[in-house]
Amino acid sequence: MTSTIDKGHLITVAMVAYNSSAYIREAIESVLCSSYERFELLIADDNSTDDTWQIIQSYTDPRIRAIRNEKNLGEYPNRDQCVRLAAGEYLIFIDGDDIIYPHGLEFSVRMLDAFPECGMALMRWFRNNLIYPAIISPGQFYIGEYFGQGFLGTAFSNVVFRTEILRNAGSLTMGYKCGDDYIRYKIALHHPALLISDSLTWWRETPGQAFQTHHRSGRLFLDSYRLRFEFLDHPDCPLSREEIAEARENLYKALSTEILKALFKFKVEKVRGIVSELKFQPRHWLKCFNRFISKDPLEGSTPVNPYRCPIGRNPYSKCPQS
Predict the structure, then answer these.
(1) Residue-wise burial string across 163-174, b where 16 or more C-beta atoms lie within 10 A, e elsewhere
(2) How far apart are CA 247 and CA 229, in angstroms?
């Protein structure tokens, strides 16, 4: 049965794939089984050496638009290509080994339709002082990331973007192995984010995938701190000067603690990386004894009086907005 919402906005499901033959059939069919039918499935095969491309070609659904790269571009250039080619007003990345639940697209589109001021929707799990959906400002996003319980820590398939805003934010930089976090920090500089409830997508953790490789090498750790220092220096950082200084204190406290743990375990290369790449100086050594400066981005909210939007703004609500 076709949902009434299928008359709504087009959403691009961007599926990057490389040697995904074991999983891509399930990924494609999870999209094709969506309750929301106004989507394009844009599949970009990154010159796979297995039969991924042959499996993709076996599908004839007119909503599928598939391309095969003449040479292997790598993860982020392949994602950038999808962003450039996307025809949808919204975009979500469901990779060749991921799955989206049948209600995932319908729920995501309804939410972003109802909150046009938001640049992206972030799927989040339960918090006892927050009712979804909820809007957070750039300042709240950054307070969460630097002073306590942030709003990331989820897979890229847990984000639904407004395509124009994602495109205007620029490429998913090759300068960081956590480029998906980088683009979310960048969008959050200028646009409110919408927090929505999770369980819309499922991402697969497979041996040898890029995330696992970068995590084991320590590259992911270093890059995550590099990008956080970079955005503190950004001229549009929404934090005050005092908050920026406090955020630096928190970062150096965390790094000094990491150095001590690494020395205890004789992980000399990790220490060298922190000192050389993150410009860790002798005066930062004692920061580990400092108190972590904690701030709540949802200040004033409690399990009794949670942070929320008026229930009438929820697009599933039949109540008049107050």
Answers:
(1) bebbeebebbee
(2) 9
What is the four-CA torsion angle of 116, 118, 121, 126, rounded to 10 degrees? Answer: -110
Report pTM. 0.90
Phi, psi of 233 (to 5 degrees): -85, -5
Q: Where are the domains of the chain?
A: 1-114, 117-308
Structure token pair of residue 123: 């799927």
The tokens 């930062």 sit on which residue? Answer: 284
Which residues are paired to 99 by β-bridges?
Answer: 202
pLDDT in tens, 69-125: 999 999 999 999 999 999 999 999 999 999 999 999 999 999 999 999 999 999 999
| CATH class of the domain defined by 1-114 | alpha beta
Residues paired with 12 in a beta bridge: 40, 91
pLDDT in tens, 30-56: 999 999 999 999 999 999 999 999 999
